[in-house]
Amino acid sequence: MAMIRVEGLRKTYGDFPAVVGSDFTVETGEIFGIVGPNGAGKTTTLKMLAGLVEPTEGTATVAGRAADDTETHRNLGFLPEESPLYEDMTPRSYLEFFADLYDVPRAEARTRTESTLDRLELEHRERRLGDMSKGMKRKVAIARSLVNDPDLLIYDEPASGLDPLTTNYVLEFTRELADRGKTVVFSAHNLYHVESVCDRIVILNRGEIIARGTVPRIRETYGETTYHVFTSVPLEASEPVAGSEAERHRTTVPNMDAVDALRDDAATAGGRVVDIRTREQSLEDIFLDLARGTPDTGTDRGREPAGAGDNGSATRNPDDPPAPSTPGSAGRDAPDGPGGDRR
Ligand SMILES: Nc1ncnc2c1ncn2[C@@H]1O[C@H](COP(=O)(O)OP(=O)(O)OP(=O)(O)O)[C@@H](O)[C@H]1O
Questions:
Q1: Is there a domain that residue 121 lies in?
Q2: Of all protein residues, whose CA lies closest to atom 11 belonging to ligand 1?
Q3: Does 321 score more than 80 pLDDT?
Q4: Domain range spanning residue 208?
């Protein structure tokens, strides 16, 4: 069942369109990422989902109820981009305070928040919040979002500005929440965050959804693949590959027809193709191309590619020395199949 259903959602501030007619659904238990550059409309979208900003047009429903319904709020954990905490409180007193607001019995709240803080490895729980680092405060804010044990979590840039270790804790923890059946919607402008945990994403630019689907499927639909063909003899446009035991020469071409042509060239030169590798464009590059409007995907832009969710592919480092393989067997070394299905 869809946890969130968004139809024709639009928000204008004065004449300025911050979100332009969004449509999407988020399934129960899914991690859904909203990605985009600064000012793309991520926060505005999340606030409309959380019932904190009123849409100019369109609707957002959560479990069949309006986003601004009181019952929806009781079942929501919202993590704002900046979460000001009461500086004189300790994590424990702060979390107890919020548990009281939600009428959560103290003992239950304590068990819940302690286990969250244990999981996030928050140290110095008796320290004043005002004396804590940014990462520690973020962990406390995350624990706060869970104090009422909500089914839906809406996190605005949960890992932004955190060190890599804390970022990892937060992202892994997000995955665990979904594994426990919670639905998580989060925004990010760092694509690495999205790629490592999200089941599906939408890419927003200037308030508009410009791509959507699973990360592997977005990569397949919008990314370009190049082929690195390794031959035993030098060809016209090849470069020698250093460090390999046998002599190797690499030529980079854009499609399989060109790969076949190289096969003929190699044979003519008395050699053969010894390996073929594919290189997928990075998500970052795809994202930048989309944001600039480079690829001409016409009316399909922002529409769910057919069969999204069942495909996987992997980014390979083209500068790895070629591994032994059967030349031409499959024509690519990026595995297709369930590898990209993250759940
Ligand atoms: N209350 C407001 N009044 C006027 N304009 C606003 C308001 N809130 C947001 N905007 C504008 O709407 C656009 C989208 O803002 P939003 O905060 O949703 O983007 P974002 O994708 O979350 O950006 P960031 O990554 O920088 O947080 C921006 O141009 C912003 O300046």
A1: yes
A2: 18
A3: no
A4: 2-220
